[in-house]
Amino acid sequence: MSVLLVESLRKSFGGVEAVAEVSFAVEAGEMLALIGPNGAGKTTCFNMVGGQLRPDGGRVHFAGRDITSMPPRAIWRLGVGRTFQITATFGSMTVAENVQMALLSHRGRLWNWWPRATRLYREEAIRLLAQVGMEDQADRACSVLAYGDLKRVELAVALAHDPKLLLMDEPTAGMAPAERIGLMDLTGRIARARGIAVLFTEHDMDVVFAQADRIIVLNRGRLIAEGAPPQVRADRAVQEVYLGSGSTFGGH
Amino acid sequence: MVVNSLVIQLLNGLASASALFLVASGLSIIFGVTRIVNFAHGSFYMLGAYVAFSITRALPVEAFDVLGELGPHVRFWGGIATAALVVGLVGIAIEIAVLRRIYHAPELFQLLATFGIVLIVQDATLAIWGPENLVGPRAPGLRGAVYILDQRFPQYELLLIAIGPAMLGLLWLLFHRTRWGTLVRAATLDREMVAALGVDQRKLFTGVFLLGAALAGLGGALQLPRETLNLQMDLSIIADVFVVTVVGGMGSVVGAYLAALLIAELQALMLLAPPFTIAGIEIAFAKLTLIPSFLVMAAVLIVRPYGLLGRPQAAARVAGAAEPVLRLATPELTRIGLAALAALALLPLAFGDYTVAVATEIAIFVLFTASLHFIMGPGGMASFGHAAYFGLGAYACGLAVKYWAAPMGVGLAFAPVLAGLGGLLFGWFTVRLSGVYLAMLTLAFAQIVWSIVFQSDALTGGDNGIRGVWPDEWARDKAVYYALAVALCIAGTLLLRRIIYAPFGYALRAGRDSPLRAEAIGIDVRRVQWIAFAVSALFAGIAGGLFAYLKGSVFPTYVSIPKSVDALVRVLLGGVQTVSGPIVGAIVFTGLEEQLARATEYWRAVLGVVIILLVLAFPEGLAGFAQRRWERWRGGGE
Predict the structure, then answer these.
(1) What is the pLDDT of residues B234-288, one digit of tens each?
(2) Per-residue confidence (pLDDT) for residue A239, from 0 to 100
(3) Residue B574 CA to chain centroid, in angstroms?
(4) Which of B323, B499, B638 lies at the smallest CB-CB distance from A91?
(5) What is the pLDDT of residues B467-498, one digit of tens each?
(6) Which strands, in side-by-side order, build the sheet including A214-219?
(7) Residues of A at the B interface (Cβ-Cβ below 8 Å)?
(8) A50:B519 CB<8 A
(9) Fewer CB within 10 Å: C terminus or N terminus of chain B?
(10) Pair B391, B254 in one domain
(11) Does B513 sit within 8 Å of A91, measured CB to CB?
(12) What is the CATH number of the domain that holds A169?
């Protein structure tokens, strides 16, 4: 059984069909890249899977369960972690507290009125931060971090409740090229080690072809290709879309 | 007959709508461009009326004789127009002297500064025109009445009815047919973009302020033949105007007109509704005019959170300074804080009864302020109507004494219950909005509570309040009551502080920092905010209850706008971002107010100046300022 199964997902904004009849699946331990030119519908797709947007049609199944139109917090509770295109962290908390927040939520302790939150699950948070190489900065404010570091904190937060599926919308946007490969390499290692299914979008084709086990290509809301990296690279329709839009493979 | 009076009421509604529209459109235009909610807009309205009064009297009649028959008309209308212009110039002066310095300050500080202006204008008006109500001249040639469906209808009202749409038309032309108007519309949509295109923002802002203030001044000046002038005109219109701009959509002039029509007609029609009886208490709609307009506002905001014709604000691209990290105080600082608190608590006992009474009040306001800080700071929800819950607590005690002759314990237990229930009810709506809209909705709810207690004489004694709300025999002694109040208030404040540092407080803060991320890690942000709102109301209720027994009486003023704003000032004075802020703010502000009220008749103006200076000097509040200094001195922090 696929961890994530998306069937005929549809969404229109006004008269514009942002996503049309998109279906795909992600297996445990698999890194699936969702690529396509700007405006192809990648983020829309993501937000429908993550619950931030309600689809007009189609279904989303997670671990055999229909999660279509569930609110994001319910989807998270089932075991879906997510990072955002523009990082979303809690600026008034330290790096460790950001992770602790997710742990507090996961352990059902949000409605506790007495204990000091900053002392709860701290070791666990530090361990998660160590996995992404951020333990040294655990006590810094999130608001002062470099962008690449914020992305890593987000990854630690997303891993906090031991998810079965990670949704990563442009996880490396805004990072230096060397950092990008590093972050996705790290993600790939963690995902394979823990058997986490990862669905990610990415503009950097180096990252995509280095890390993805499989690639699906979206253009104008429709799925135009699917397969292993070499297969997709050779696909004529894909090449046309990318060359036509001015982007090229391999460069930035 | 019924139809006739219905028509007349509808016409009355149209006439009132014009005045409301003039003021509201000014507020809306100013907000659209500068993003400042101008609390002082009601003051411009009041100034317009008073200035017009003086000008129309000062202009010598003979000077206009050369114009023959037209003379009196030119004199009167010239006076009205000049008054509007004068108010516009006052607006410019205020913009240049104060607001220009705080365009980049947090929204709330801007609002606070404009409330400082309200206070100054209030006292200036008192000093210049005196406390008596004034009656202005009638408009020449429009003194009579016409007969509409056999009913007398003043000619002047007909003119007012025409002025609303006429001004709407003129504004439309201004905004759509002139370069300046186009810039204003562009800035309303996206002011950073307009700035990037090389438009001089300062001129644009000043111009917008001139226009907005002049519109309000005109609205006030036009009231001259219609209403007696009084010193409450500013705050009484501002509540209605807030409702109108919020219902219409902030920044939308057409929306302001539609909303003004809606609200004014509704209020006019309420006057016709027959009274009815519920549970033995007669309810006269005619007296409860405020409630329907606020219900309309609540309804509109739930269906269309940005008002009828409003749209979501373009997110400011200049990211605001991130909230600082909230850290537990160091043991050293905790010890100093607790010691200071203990000393402050014991000190007044060494002095006389007066000092003890003032100290009791301060203790109560510390708790009240801490309760507001709880939702404002960690919650990020600025309540402009927190006096509602303070007042509910006070009235809970008052009603317990009046109807059940209950002992103090019952009253003090009932206070948080009633206030908490009020918080649950109003909070459910409130947490669906954010920012300015949220602030204005809370103000509206407070006005509902105010109008209920003010207007239902039978239940609450109306304006006369409820008297004889004294503590039990054992607590009659000032020092004993002080001890009780201090114990409860410090316990309550420390409890709130504890919650802020507990997981619930963190969840609340998470929802404020990034609702997107909070929802994505399983936090039900709205529910957390809702419960926080109710908890905050509950603690405010305790403060209100203690205040009732301190004063021995309960009045509608406990729920009034100035009470709510005082609470805001205390929070902002202390600093929103520090947990000790509200304590400092409450002590400083209450002490200051007390001293000023004793020292000068014009204490409001002095307070206003102090507020403005504080906003200019300490945008992070006193405690925030002290904390930063401390950290720098200790070499700690980042």
Answers:
(1) 888 887 888 888 888 887 889 999 999 998 888 888 777 766 666 555 556 556 6
(2) 85
(3) 19
(4) B323
(5) 888 998 888 888 899 999 999 999 999 999 99
(6) A80-83, A165-169, A197-201, A31-35, A214-219, A222-227
(7) 50, 52, 71-73, 76-77, 82, 84, 88-94, 97, 100-102, 104-106, 109-118, 120, 140-141, 143-144, 157, 160-161
(8) no
(9) N
(10) no
(11) yes
(12) 3.40.50.300
| Whether residues B211 and B280 fall in one domain | yes
Please state, in angstroms and rounded to a whole number, the distance separating the CA atoms of residues B156 and B457: 34
Domain boundary among B303, B319, B338: B303
Angle at A46 between CA A45 and CA A49, to 5 degrees: 90
CATH number at residue B447: 1.10.3470
B360, with CB counted inside 10 A (0-12, 13-18, 19+), is buried
Give a three-class secondary structure readout of B307-351.
CCCCCCCCCCCCCCCCCCCCCCCCHHHHHHHHHHHHHHHHHHHHC
Q: Does residue B134 belong to any structural domain of this protein? A: yes
Please give the tally of structural domains in chain A: 1
Distance CA B403, CA B458 (A): 12
Q: Which of B521, B536, B538 to mutate to test the interface with A (most CBs of A within 10 A)?
A: B521
Q: What residue type is assigned to position B122 of the chain?
A: Q
Distance CA B371, CA B412 (A): 17
Residue of A nearest to B496 (CA): A113
Number of H helices and E strands in chain A, helices first, is: 9, 10
d(CA B518, CA B568): 27
What is the percent of chain B where pLDDT is above 70?
Answer: 93
Q: Fill in the amino acid letter for A206.
A: D
Q: What is the mean pLDDT of residues B370-399?
A: 93
Split into its structural domains, chain B has a count of 2
- Tokens representing residue B533 in the block: 């709102």
What 3-state DSSP class applies to A24? strand
Calculate ∠ Cα A201-A207-A209, nearest 5°: 95
Tell me the C-alpha distance between B163 and B343, whole Å. 62
Q: Are the beta carbons of B297 and B243 closer than 8 angstroms?
A: yes
pTM to 2 decimals? 0.85
Together in a domain, B262 and B370: no
